[in-house]
Amino acid sequence: MAVDFPAELRELRQTLGSILEVSDVGALEKQVAELSEQASAPDLWDDPEHAQQVTSKMSHVQAELDRLSAMVSQVEDLETLVEMATEESDADTLAEAETELVKVKEALGRLEVRTLLSGEYDEREALVTIRSEAGGVDAADFAEMLLRMYLRWAERHGYKTEVFDTSYAEEAGIKSATFKVAAPYAYGTLSVEQGTHRLVRISPFDNQGRRQTSFAGVEVLPVVAETDHIDIPENDIKVDVYRSSGPGGQSVNTTDSAVRLTHLPTGVVVTCQNEKSQLQNKASALRVLQAKLLERARQERQAELDSLKGDGGSSWGNQMRSYVLHPYQMVKDLRTEEETGNPTAVFDGDIDAFLESGIRWRLNSEKAAG
Length: 370
Known about the structure:
With 370 residues, the chain is α+β, with helices and mostly antiparallel strands. Helix content is 49%, strand content 20%. The strands form two sheets. An eight-stranded mixed β-sheet has the order 2-3-1-5-4-9-10-11, with helices on both faces.
Protein backbone atom coordinates (compact mmCIF):
# COMPACT_ATOMS: atom_id res chain seq x y z
CA MET A 1 0.00 0.00 0.00
CA ALA A 2 1.40 3.38 -1.08
CA VAL A 3 2.35 5.87 1.61
CA ASP A 4 0.13 8.96 1.78
CA PHE A 5 3.05 11.40 1.92
CA PRO A 6 0.97 14.64 2.04
CA ALA A 7 -0.98 13.38 5.08
CA GLU A 8 2.18 12.02 6.77
CA LEU A 9 4.06 15.30 6.22
CA ARG A 10 1.13 17.37 7.54
CA GLU A 11 1.12 15.25 10.70
CA LEU A 12 4.89 15.59 11.08
CA ARG A 13 4.65 19.38 10.69
CA GLN A 14 1.86 19.55 13.27
CA THR A 15 3.82 17.48 15.80
CA LEU A 16 6.99 19.48 15.16
CA GLY A 17 5.08 22.76 15.62
CA SER A 18 3.75 21.58 19.00
CA ILE A 19 7.24 20.52 20.11
CA LEU A 20 8.77 23.88 19.12
CA GLU A 21 5.97 25.75 20.91
CA VAL A 22 6.33 23.76 24.14
CA SER A 23 10.15 23.95 24.00
CA ASP A 24 9.98 27.77 23.63
CA VAL A 25 12.91 28.22 21.24
CA GLY A 26 12.96 31.99 21.83
CA ALA A 27 13.44 31.51 25.58
CA LEU A 28 16.22 28.97 24.95
CA GLU A 29 18.03 31.38 22.59
CA LYS A 30 17.72 34.16 25.18
CA GLN A 31 19.12 31.81 27.84
CA VAL A 32 22.12 30.92 25.66
CA ALA A 33 22.83 34.62 25.04
CA GLU A 34 22.70 35.39 28.79
CA LEU A 35 24.89 32.41 29.72
CA SER A 36 27.33 33.27 26.93
CA GLU A 37 27.65 36.77 28.38
CA GLN A 38 28.32 35.32 31.84
CA ALA A 39 30.85 32.86 30.38
CA SER A 40 32.82 35.66 28.75
CA ALA A 41 33.21 37.60 32.02
CA PRO A 42 36.96 38.05 32.76
CA ASP A 43 36.55 37.04 36.43
CA LEU A 44 34.44 33.95 35.67
CA TRP A 45 37.06 31.42 36.76
CA ASP A 46 37.73 33.23 40.05
CA ASP A 47 34.96 30.94 41.30
CA PRO A 48 35.65 27.60 39.50
CA GLU A 49 32.49 25.89 40.80
CA HIS A 50 30.23 28.70 39.55
CA ALA A 51 32.16 28.81 36.25
CA GLN A 52 31.61 25.09 35.80
CA GLN A 53 27.88 25.52 36.39
CA VAL A 54 27.63 28.36 33.86
CA THR A 55 29.56 26.57 31.11
CA SER A 56 27.77 23.28 31.76
CA LYS A 57 24.33 24.94 31.67
CA MET A 58 25.24 26.79 28.47
CA SER A 59 26.39 23.54 26.86
CA HIS A 60 23.14 21.80 27.89
CA VAL A 61 20.85 24.58 26.58
CA GLN A 62 22.82 24.88 23.34
CA ALA A 63 22.55 21.10 22.86
CA GLU A 64 18.78 21.39 23.28
CA LEU A 65 18.62 24.13 20.64
CA ASP A 66 20.82 22.10 18.29
CA ARG A 67 18.55 19.08 18.74
CA LEU A 68 15.46 21.12 17.80
CA SER A 69 17.25 22.74 14.85
CA ALA A 70 18.40 19.34 13.56
CA MET A 71 14.80 18.06 13.76
CA VAL A 72 13.52 21.02 11.71
CA SER A 73 16.21 20.29 9.09
CA GLN A 74 15.28 16.58 8.99
CA VAL A 75 11.62 17.37 8.31
CA GLU A 76 12.53 19.95 5.64
CA ASP A 77 14.94 17.53 3.95
CA LEU A 78 12.24 14.85 3.90
CA GLU A 79 9.76 17.29 2.32
CA THR A 80 12.33 18.11 -0.39
CA LEU A 81 13.01 14.41 -1.01
CA VAL A 82 9.28 13.64 -1.34
CA GLU A 83 8.81 16.60 -3.71
CA MET A 84 11.66 15.40 -5.95
CA ALA A 85 10.43 11.80 -5.97
CA THR A 86 6.85 12.83 -6.78
CA GLU A 87 7.84 15.24 -9.57
CA GLU A 88 10.09 12.69 -11.25
CA SER A 89 7.94 9.62 -10.40
CA ASP A 90 11.19 7.99 -9.29
CA ALA A 91 10.49 4.66 -7.54
CA ASP A 92 13.97 4.48 -5.95
CA THR A 93 13.70 7.99 -4.52
CA LEU A 94 10.18 7.23 -3.23
CA ALA A 95 11.50 4.11 -1.50
CA GLU A 96 14.29 6.23 0.04
CA ALA A 97 11.67 8.76 1.19
CA GLU A 98 9.66 5.96 2.84
CA THR A 99 12.75 4.80 4.77
CA GLU A 100 13.53 8.38 5.78
CA LEU A 101 9.93 8.94 6.88
CA VAL A 102 10.20 6.07 9.38
CA LYS A 103 13.46 7.53 10.78
CA VAL A 104 12.01 11.05 11.09
CA LYS A 105 8.86 9.78 12.83
CA GLU A 106 10.99 7.86 15.36
CA ALA A 107 13.24 10.88 16.01
CA LEU A 108 10.21 13.16 16.36
CA GLY A 109 8.61 10.69 18.79
CA ARG A 110 11.75 10.77 20.97
CA LEU A 111 11.75 14.58 20.92
CA GLU A 112 8.04 14.70 21.73
CA VAL A 113 8.62 12.54 24.83
CA ARG A 114 11.07 15.19 26.09
CA THR A 115 8.26 17.77 26.04
CA LEU A 116 6.23 15.52 28.37
CA LEU A 117 8.84 15.93 31.12
CA SER A 118 7.42 18.81 33.12
CA GLY A 119 7.75 17.52 36.69
CA GLU A 120 9.33 19.59 39.46
CA TYR A 121 12.80 18.07 39.03
CA ASP A 122 12.53 16.48 35.56
CA GLU A 123 15.11 18.73 33.91
CA ARG A 124 17.77 17.84 36.51
CA GLU A 125 20.73 15.51 36.15
CA ALA A 126 20.19 12.07 37.70
CA LEU A 127 21.70 10.08 40.55
CA VAL A 128 21.11 6.37 40.01
CA THR A 129 21.66 3.63 42.61
CA ILE A 130 21.47 -0.07 41.71
CA ARG A 131 21.29 -2.75 44.42
CA SER A 132 21.29 -6.52 44.17
CA GLU A 133 18.27 -8.02 45.92
CA ALA A 134 17.00 -11.62 46.22
CA GLY A 135 18.92 -14.24 44.23
CA GLY A 136 22.40 -14.45 45.75
CA VAL A 137 25.34 -14.33 43.35
CA ASP A 138 22.98 -14.21 40.33
CA ALA A 139 21.38 -11.04 41.73
CA ALA A 140 24.82 -9.44 42.22
CA ASP A 141 25.74 -10.35 38.64
CA PHE A 142 22.38 -8.97 37.40
CA ALA A 143 22.98 -5.69 39.28
CA GLU A 144 26.31 -5.34 37.44
CA MET A 145 24.57 -6.08 34.11
CA LEU A 146 22.09 -3.25 34.84
CA LEU A 147 24.92 -0.89 35.78
CA ARG A 148 26.60 -1.57 32.44
CA MET A 149 23.25 -1.19 30.63
CA TYR A 150 22.67 2.32 31.97
CA LEU A 151 26.29 3.42 31.45
CA ARG A 152 26.13 2.13 27.84
CA TRP A 153 22.81 3.97 27.34
CA ALA A 154 24.43 7.22 28.52
CA GLU A 155 27.48 6.58 26.31
CA ARG A 156 25.24 6.04 23.24
CA HIS A 157 23.72 9.50 23.82
CA GLY A 158 27.02 11.21 24.61
CA TYR A 159 26.02 11.86 28.24
CA LYS A 160 28.79 12.14 30.83
CA THR A 161 28.63 9.76 33.79
CA GLU A 162 30.47 9.66 37.10
CA VAL A 163 30.49 6.57 39.31
CA PHE A 164 30.55 7.63 42.97
CA ASP A 165 30.66 4.27 44.67
CA THR A 166 30.75 0.57 43.79
CA SER A 167 30.41 -2.15 46.42
CA TYR A 168 31.60 -5.44 44.89
CA ALA A 169 30.11 -8.80 45.84
CA GLU A 170 32.45 -11.58 46.97
CA GLU A 171 32.00 -14.10 44.15
CA ALA A 172 30.87 -11.97 41.19
CA GLY A 173 28.93 -8.82 40.39
CA ILE A 174 28.13 -5.94 42.72
CA LYS A 175 26.15 -5.41 45.90
CA SER A 176 25.43 -1.82 44.89
CA ALA A 177 26.64 1.12 42.79
CA THR A 178 25.77 4.82 42.64
CA PHE A 179 26.49 6.99 39.60
CA LYS A 180 25.50 10.36 38.14
CA VAL A 181 24.24 11.01 34.61
CA ALA A 182 25.16 14.60 33.72
CA ALA A 183 22.63 15.55 31.06
CA PRO A 184 19.54 17.77 30.90
CA TYR A 185 16.35 15.86 31.77
CA ALA A 186 18.34 12.79 32.84
CA TYR A 187 16.24 12.57 36.01
CA GLY A 188 12.90 12.93 34.23
CA THR A 189 13.95 10.35 31.65
CA LEU A 190 15.46 7.75 33.98
CA SER A 191 13.01 8.16 36.87
CA VAL A 192 10.65 5.70 35.12
CA GLU A 193 13.35 3.03 35.66
CA GLN A 194 12.84 3.14 39.42
CA GLY A 195 11.63 -0.11 40.89
CA THR A 196 12.47 -3.82 40.94
CA HIS A 197 13.94 -5.51 37.85
CA ARG A 198 13.71 -9.31 37.48
CA LEU A 199 16.05 -11.66 35.57
CA VAL A 200 15.17 -15.25 34.60
CA ARG A 201 17.99 -17.37 33.12
CA ILE A 202 20.04 -20.55 33.40
CA SER A 203 22.45 -19.59 36.16
CA PRO A 204 26.11 -19.49 35.04
CA PHE A 205 26.96 -19.98 38.73
CA ASP A 206 24.93 -23.19 39.20
CA ASN A 207 26.94 -26.34 38.32
CA GLN A 208 23.66 -28.21 37.71
CA GLY A 209 22.56 -25.63 35.11
CA ARG A 210 19.25 -24.83 36.81
CA ARG A 211 17.03 -21.88 35.97
CA GLN A 212 17.37 -19.02 38.43
CA THR A 213 15.22 -15.94 39.08
CA SER A 214 17.02 -12.98 40.60
CA PHE A 215 16.15 -9.38 41.41
CA ALA A 216 17.83 -5.97 41.46
CA GLY A 217 16.47 -2.62 42.63
CA VAL A 218 16.95 0.72 40.87
CA GLU A 219 16.59 4.07 42.64
CA VAL A 220 16.70 7.35 40.68
CA LEU A 221 17.09 10.77 42.35
CA PRO A 222 17.42 14.33 41.01
CA VAL A 223 20.82 15.94 41.55
CA VAL A 224 20.63 18.71 44.14
CA ALA A 225 20.80 22.29 42.83
CA GLU A 226 22.04 25.39 44.66
CA THR A 227 18.45 26.60 45.03
CA ASP A 228 17.32 23.53 46.99
CA HIS A 229 18.63 24.72 50.37
CA ILE A 230 19.15 21.30 51.92
CA ASP A 231 20.73 22.36 55.19
CA ILE A 232 22.39 19.49 57.07
CA PRO A 233 23.90 20.48 60.43
CA GLU A 234 27.32 18.88 61.00
CA ASN A 235 26.07 17.40 64.29
CA ASP A 236 23.51 15.39 62.28
CA ILE A 237 26.19 13.56 60.30
CA LYS A 238 28.42 10.70 61.45
CA VAL A 239 31.54 10.43 59.25
CA ASP A 240 33.45 7.14 58.90
CA VAL A 241 36.56 6.75 56.77
CA TYR A 242 37.94 3.44 55.51
CA ARG A 243 40.15 1.96 52.83
CA SER A 244 38.67 1.70 49.33
CA SER A 245 38.44 -1.78 47.88
CA GLY A 246 38.01 -3.22 44.41
CA PRO A 247 36.72 -6.54 43.02
CA GLY A 248 37.38 -9.51 45.29
CA GLY A 249 38.28 -7.26 48.20
CA GLN A 250 41.55 -6.26 46.56
CA SER A 251 42.80 -2.93 47.96
CA VAL A 252 42.87 -0.12 45.42
CA ASN A 253 44.09 2.50 47.87
CA THR A 254 46.75 2.50 50.51
CA THR A 255 45.10 5.27 52.55
CA ASP A 256 41.75 5.57 54.31
CA SER A 257 40.19 7.74 51.59
CA ALA A 258 36.72 6.16 51.24
CA VAL A 259 33.98 7.96 53.17
CA ARG A 260 30.72 6.76 54.72
CA LEU A 261 28.20 9.38 55.87
CA THR A 262 25.32 8.48 58.19
CA HIS A 263 22.51 11.03 58.60
CA LEU A 264 21.62 10.42 62.25
CA PRO A 265 18.03 11.81 62.29
CA THR A 266 16.90 9.60 59.37
CA GLY A 267 19.43 6.76 59.32
CA VAL A 268 20.22 7.40 55.63
CA VAL A 269 23.72 6.07 54.78
CA VAL A 270 25.81 6.96 51.70
CA THR A 271 29.35 5.99 50.72
CA CYS A 272 31.83 7.30 48.17
CA GLN A 273 35.20 5.86 47.20
CA ASN A 274 35.83 6.85 43.58
CA GLU A 275 38.25 9.71 44.35
CA LYS A 276 41.76 9.33 45.77
CA SER A 277 41.22 12.20 48.19
CA GLN A 278 39.18 11.77 51.36
CA LEU A 279 38.05 15.40 51.04
CA GLN A 280 36.74 14.86 47.50
CA ASN A 281 34.96 11.67 48.51
CA LYS A 282 33.33 13.47 51.43
CA ALA A 283 32.11 16.27 49.12
CA SER A 284 30.67 13.73 46.63
CA ALA A 285 29.02 11.71 49.43
CA LEU A 286 27.48 14.91 50.81
CA ARG A 287 25.94 15.68 47.40
CA VAL A 288 24.42 12.18 47.27
CA LEU A 289 23.11 12.54 50.85
CA GLN A 290 21.52 15.90 49.98
CA ALA A 291 19.82 14.31 46.95
CA LYS A 292 18.44 11.49 49.11
CA LEU A 293 17.12 13.92 51.72
CA LEU A 294 15.61 16.13 48.99
CA GLU A 295 13.78 13.11 47.56
CA ARG A 296 12.69 12.05 51.04
CA ALA A 297 11.15 15.50 51.60
CA ARG A 298 9.45 15.33 48.18
CA GLN A 299 7.98 11.90 48.98
CA GLU A 300 6.69 13.16 52.33
CA ARG A 301 4.97 16.09 50.56
CA GLN A 302 3.53 13.68 47.98
CA ALA A 303 2.28 11.35 50.72
CA GLU A 304 0.48 14.28 52.35
CA LEU A 305 -1.16 15.21 49.01
CA ASP A 306 -2.10 11.57 48.36
CA SER A 307 -3.68 11.25 51.79
CA LEU A 308 -5.70 14.41 51.11
CA LYS A 309 -6.81 12.96 47.77
CA GLY A 310 -7.52 9.63 49.48
CA ASP A 311 -5.92 7.49 46.77
CA GLY A 312 -3.35 5.88 49.03
CA GLY A 313 -0.40 6.92 46.90
CA SER A 314 1.22 5.40 43.85
CA SER A 315 2.59 1.88 43.55
CA TRP A 316 4.32 2.21 40.15
CA GLY A 317 7.77 2.01 41.73
CA ASN A 318 7.61 -1.76 42.48
CA GLN A 319 8.36 -4.67 40.13
CA MET A 320 8.47 -3.05 36.71
CA ARG A 321 10.50 -5.04 34.15
CA SER A 322 11.25 -8.67 33.44
CA TYR A 323 14.33 -9.88 31.53
CA VAL A 324 13.92 -13.49 30.38
CA LEU A 325 16.90 -15.32 28.81
CA HIS A 326 15.50 -18.87 29.22
CA PRO A 327 13.36 -20.73 28.08
CA TYR A 328 12.76 -17.89 25.57
CA GLN A 329 14.33 -14.46 24.98
CA MET A 330 12.27 -11.42 25.97
CA VAL A 331 12.42 -8.17 27.90
CA LYS A 332 9.00 -6.88 28.95
CA ASP A 333 7.88 -3.83 30.90
CA LEU A 334 5.15 -4.99 33.26
CA ARG A 335 3.46 -1.56 33.38
CA THR A 336 3.45 -0.48 29.72
CA GLU A 337 3.50 -3.90 27.98
CA GLU A 338 6.47 -2.63 25.92
CA GLU A 339 8.58 -5.65 24.96
CA THR A 340 11.40 -6.87 22.72
CA GLY A 341 12.84 -10.27 21.82
CA ASN A 342 16.41 -8.92 21.87
CA PRO A 343 17.72 -8.85 25.47
CA THR A 344 21.32 -8.56 24.19
CA ALA A 345 20.59 -5.16 22.66
CA VAL A 346 18.78 -4.03 25.82
CA PHE A 347 21.70 -4.99 28.06
CA ASP A 348 23.93 -3.08 25.63
CA GLY A 349 22.01 0.13 26.40
CA ASP A 350 19.23 0.04 23.81
CA ILE A 351 16.46 1.07 26.23
CA ASP A 352 15.00 4.22 24.64
CA ALA A 353 11.74 2.49 23.63
CA PHE A 354 11.23 1.40 27.27
CA LEU A 355 12.03 4.89 28.58
CA GLU A 356 9.65 6.57 26.13
CA SER A 357 6.75 4.20 26.79
CA GLY A 358 7.39 4.55 30.54
CA ILE A 359 7.21 8.35 30.38
CA ARG A 360 3.97 8.24 28.35
CA TRP A 361 2.51 5.62 30.72
CA ARG A 362 3.38 7.70 33.80
CA LEU A 363 1.80 10.82 32.29
CA ASN A 364 -1.41 8.90 31.49
CA SER A 365 -1.43 7.41 35.01
CA GLU A 366 -1.08 10.88 36.56
CA LYS A 367 -3.90 12.23 34.38
CA ALA A 368 -6.13 9.30 35.35
CA ALA A 369 -5.39 9.92 39.04
CA GLY A 370 -6.50 13.53 38.56
